[in-house]
Amino acid sequence: MAELKTEVLAEDFIFLEGPRWHDGCLWTSDMWDYKVLKVKSDGSRETVVEVPNRPSGLGFLPDGTPLVVSMADRKLYRIERGTLVQHAELAPFVTGDINDLVMDEAGRAYVGNFGCDLMAGEEMKPADLVCVERDGRVRTVASNLVFPNGMVIMDGGRTLVAAETFGNRLAAFDRAADGSLSNHRVYAEMGQMTPDGICLDQGGGIWVSSFLTDEFVRVEAGGRITDRIAVQDRRAVACQLGGDDGRTLFCLTFEGHMEDIAGRKRAGRIETARVAVPTAGSP
């Protein structure tokens, strides 16, 4: 197993989520600073829009229009000329704050949710995945996931893989042409790891952020781990492949615990590592 190291690209954030490489920049949500940011390769940053109810997952419609999850009010917004425009209302379909998302080539967004009030310490409950069509229509496409989190679409669009954070696994679904999901199964058991944000490379490997074990790992179908990045004493939150050649792994980390997140401790950081296999473009 290859052991890789990171370098610090930028810091002095609160809690970063939803990294996406788009048009030469890393887009990310600073959840508890209520901002969507663009970060350049030199570490400089720009605020794209403010999201009062906590931004998280990000994606882009086929025409390049950004979408952002607004967690607490359970809405999906488009970002148009620096302004939030409602794209979909998810509250009737979910049982907790909405979280990460992944887009398909047709402009559909798959969005997960907590399934419970995590910050209040509520007992974990099964949660659903919803699909938001390009025109904003919403439907439930999968149920009984244990805290669905980061997602990728692979195999030419035929498979969706989702992190089940507190199920300690990656789950896979068959994906139909209309975006429907079926055949919920285990893609990789992760042991004690708690998979959060994930991203896909061209070799079919999935980079996984393990929040509670402070590491990023590259895992293949069935669970074989080929690469590992330990970030000792820092939570591994999310990751995204990008950069000019697609071989830079952007690693979002947080130096703190669950109670520090809502406390708005400025302990978020973007770190980078160079990897062997480039991005496959999902998420």
Q: How is the secondary structure organized here?
A:
Layout: E1 2-4, E2 7-13, E3 16-22, E4 25-30, E5 35-39, E6 45-50, E7 55-60, E8 66-70, E9 75-80, E10 83-89, E11 98-103, E12 109-113, E13 127-132, E14 138-145, E15 148-154, E16 159-164, E17 169-175, E18 181-189, E19 195-200, E20 206-210, E21 215-219, E22 225-230, E23 235-242, E24 248-254, H1 258-262, E25 268-274
Parallel strand pairs: 1-22
Antiparallel strand pairs: 2-25, 3-4, 4-5, 5-6, 7-8, 8-9, 9-10, 11-12, 12-13, 13-14, 15-16, 16-17, 17-18, 19-20, 20-21, 21-22, 23-24, 24-25
What is this structure, in a nutshell?
With 283 residues, the protein is mainly beta. The chain has one helix at 258-262; strands at 2-4, 7-13, 16-22, 25-30, 35-39, 45-50, 55-60, 66-70, 75-80, 83-89, 98-103, 109-113, 127-132, 138-145, 148-154, 159-164, 169-175, 181-189, 195-200, 206-210, 215-219, 225-230, 235-242, 248-254, 268-274.
Describe this structure in words.
The longest helix is centred in the C-terminal third of the chain and has 5 residues, at 258-262. The mean pLDDT is 96. The protein has a single domain (2-274), classed as Neuraminidase (6 Propeller). It has one helix and 25 strands. The chain has one helix at 258-262, and strands at residues 2-4, 7-13, 16-22, 25-30, 35-39, 45-50, 55-60, 66-70, 75-80, 83-89, 98-103, 109-113, 127-132, 138-145, 148-154, 159-164, 169-175, 181-189, 195-200, 206-210, 215-219, 225-230, 235-242, 248-254, 268-274. The strands form six sheets. A five-stranded mixed β-sheet has the order 1-22-21-20-19, with no helix packed on it.
